[in-house]
Specification:
The protein is an alpha+beta fold. It has helices at residues 68-78, 89-92, 95-98, 102-108, 121-131, 138-144, 149-160, 164-182, 187-194, 199-210, 214-221; strands spanning 17-23, 26-29, 34-37, 41-45, 52-55, 60-63, 83-86, 111-113. Helix 8 (164-182) runs antiparallel to helix 9.
Length: 224
């Protein structure tokens, strides 16, 4: 299946989701990696986790209800990260049972993180540099790999669906959200850790990406 980022461009959901795929084939990509899903596969996505996706015609999935208690337990065990796995075959065959199985899937099914993307080495090195906190000049990174800036942008968009500049910004936002969800650091400390100029820069970027204030975001990131 050829990936088309225009099928479902990079976006976020306000709430955490447990999604089970029932038929077809679906590829999901995030800053950290990607995964391919067929019938029986599932993904657990925390609130405000940036991702895009592409499915074959006829792909079908279910968003399963999960209790606040189960979400809180899952978050305590796994933190703010997307994880994937497979449900037992008997669940996939019974839609009524499946829709009541969200808590049990979170508690009992083995999960793993997204796999690293199969990206050409030069683009992979540039992506790692862009994802690291701190200043990264895309022109200098392109020159170091003997690439023209426009060539870098074209190749990067083909691999990630977004420009290098957007990738750098989204990587910093993802790290800031993770720190907000998993630590007690102040916003000023998070802004420095994630590579933002200051707390105001972080707050503006978060509002632009999610539509919420830091306090609103914090409440949605940590299940209770």
């Amino acid at each position: 299946m050829r990936f088309d980022p225009n099928n479902q461009p990079l976006h976020r959901h306000d709430e955490a989701r447990l999604i089970v795929f029932l038929r077809g084939c679906y590829i999901e990509r995030a800053i950290e990696g990607s995964a391919r899903f067929e019938a029986g596969g599932f993904i657990v996505r925390p609130a405000l986790y940036a991702h895009d996706g592409c499915g074959t015609p006829g792909t079908e999935y279910r968003i399963l209800p999960v209790s606040p208690t189960a979400w809180a337990r899952y978050h305590a065990d796994n933190g703010w990260t997307a994880r994937i796995g497979r449900i037992p075959d008997e669940l996939a065959a019974n839609n009524g049972t499946l829709l009541r199985a969200g808590d049990a899937i979170l508690a009992n099914c083995e999960t793993r993180t997204l796999a690293a993307r199969n990206v050409e080495p030069a683009i992979s090195r540039i992506a790692l540099a862009l994802a690291a906190p701190g200043s990264s000049d895309t022109g200098a990174l392109a020159a170091a790999e003997e690439l023209q800036p426009w060539t870098l942008t074209r190749r990067f968009r083909r691999q990630f669906g977004i420009t290098p500049t957007r990738f750098r910004q989204e990587s910093r936002i993802q790290l800031a959200l993770k720190l907000m969800a998993e630590t007690a650091l102040s916003l000023s400390a998070i802004s420095a850790e994630a590579g933002f100029a200051d707390q105001s820069h972080l707050s503006r970027s978060l509002r632009q990406a999610t539509g919420g204030t830091p306090s609103q975001i914090q409440r949605s990131l940590i299940p209770s």
